[in-house]
Model the fold of this input.
Amino acid sequence: MADEAVPAPAGLHFDDLNKLRVLEAETSEETQALRDECKEFVEKFGEFQGIVDSFMEMTTNLSKEVEREKMKAIGARNLLKSIEKQREAKKLQLQALIAEKRVQVERYRVQCQSLQKMEAEQRDFVENFSLQK
Done:
């Protein structure tokens, strides 16, 4: 009844404790609830941002690790290609050396045959010469 006896000026209200308020009690409670919800939302959003930052850091570190491993793999592949090329070059070099040695062996064989023929002719000559005396 006290509320009815005193008319409320525009925008002023009395709450349950008979305190003068600018807002109605219901609007004030909704505003407080909205403030609490906003605070909770900001806190959760902060947590979410922290999780996102952590995730981004993890993915950045992971991508760096993947890039390092990729470079290692490329280096290893290039090393294997280099070793393969070196082996091929060494193989060709050894094949050329074998061919050269075969030519040399053939030349020595022909020279040996020639010397053996010359030795046989000289023995025949010495034998014929010693028989003539």
Remarks:
- Helices lie at 2-5, 25-132.
- The two ends are 175 Å apart (CA to CA).
- The beta strands are 13-14, 20-21.
- The first strand starts at residue 13 and ends at 14.
